[in-house]
Amino acid sequence: MTLTDTKCRNAKGQIRPRKLSDGGGLHLLVNPDGAKYWRLAYRWHGKQRTLAIGVYPAVGLMEARAARVEAKRNLATDTDPSMVKQERKRAAKIATGNTFEAVAHEWHENWKGARTPYYAAQILRRLEADAFPAIGRRPIAALEPTELLDMLRKVERRGVNETARRLKQLVGQIFRFAIVTGRAKRDPSVDLRDALRATGEPQRHKAMPLSELPIFLQKLESYSGERQTKLALKLVTLTFLRTTELRAGRWSELENLDENSALWRIPAERMKMRFEHLVPLSRQAIAVLRELRTLSGDSSNIFPSPGKGGCMSSNTMLYALYRMGYHGRATTHGFRAVDSTILNETNLFNRDWIERQLSHVERNEVRRAYNAAEWMPDRRRMMQWWADYLSSLALEGDKVIPLSRVG
């Protein structure tokens, strides 16, 4: 008699393993501990063999019977069902090892040698932010143009069409690497040539208008999110640093936090322009760092995080701005433009001091000799003026203080 779901479900373990036959070599093996396994007995070139089909109830009766039919069909074409199963397992293993994310990491390791560490890290972050969450776990050879388009549309919906275009180019490079290394047959990104939105003018980091600074500073004071994030935003406004340079900061880079000569010495390998950079710290910046010290515990990072890299995510501060109501109106990087604009408008400070503090380096032979400490006394005075100005703005409510009243 053939089996039924009820018989399979109610079968109990006995002293010895037993087989419940369904006919045609298919049987349910019931072990003494009650575990149940589908097996198919068959002969291959005169030798008795057994095909393991799966574990009951994960593999049900109907699925086991379908596997029996397929095995019989293989035998009819002189194909060993066990070899078919092994080939499928091998193909699945290869597919798992050749996911888009796995191939992308291999491509990145191969590609980054001729690039600066900063640029290489920037490219990897772009993949981690937009590509891996969408297609990272998919076998690269199985990816279709529609999947890539869905991923790129999500980027476009953020209003960063140029970023979507660059991501498409980046994905194309990874596919071409997969093709020449035998993991893919074609590059589906080429089918998206006319599918993306026009980029128009290059997108800039949006800077907050001066008129909105007082309200922003008040909102920042009352920000109810993570304390570390709030302090990071304060420090962005006080130091002129890029987001990456700030969030990856280490306590070992700080000097004399209790002195008038307090300094943040950022090594060249962490700077975009590959030069050591010095940030004279205002009294307000020192106060923020002291509070961060109480939050960081024993970590060597100023902004520790359990995530990848051990420090705050690149989007943490940006998302905080979104929650404060500045989505599409301001970015953390945009504060550098605010700093530069206001300081230049005061006519109190030499433009070279401002540019050096923003770590803008002229790339020509004449300016090749770069002195990180150049104009340090003047830059220290300028940074304290800026911190005092921000403090005054915060106290003025929704009024903008004329620059002439500060300094």
Q: What structural class should be given to the helix and strand makeup? A: alpha+beta
Radius of gyration: 31 Å
Low-pLDDT segments, ≥5 res = 200-204, 363-368, 398-407
- Let me know the largest β-sheet: 4 strands, antiparallel
Q: Helix content range of the residues, please?
A: 40-55%
**The top level CATH class name of the largest domain:** Mainly Alpha
CATH superfamily of the largest domain: Intergrase catalytic core
Shape: elongated
* Whole-number total of structural domains: 3
β content, as a range?
5-15%
Q: Average the pLDDT over all residues and give the rounded result.
A: 86
**Tally of helical runs:** 15
> Numbering strands along the chain, what is their spatial order in the largest sheet?
1-2-3-4
The appropriate CATH architecture of the largest domain is: Orthogonal Bundle
Number of strands: 7
Distance between the termini: 97 Å
The ordered H/E elements are HEEEEHHHHHHHHHEEEHHHHH
- Using the coordinates shown, work out and report the CATH topology of the largest domain: hpI Integrase, Chain A
What does the secondary structure layout of this molecule look like, with pairings?
Blueprint: H1 5-10, E1 18-23, E2 26-30, E3 36-44, E4 47-56, H2 61-76, H3 81-97, H4 100-111, H5 117-135, H6 145-156, H7 161-180, H8 213-221, H9 227-239, H10 243-247, E5 254-255, E6 263-266, E7 277-280, H11 283-296, H12 316-323, H13 334-346, H14 351-357, H15 376-395
Antiparallel strand pairs: 1-2, 2-3, 3-4, 5-6, 6-7
Helix pairs in contact: 4-5, 4-7, 5-6, 6-7, 8-15, 9-11
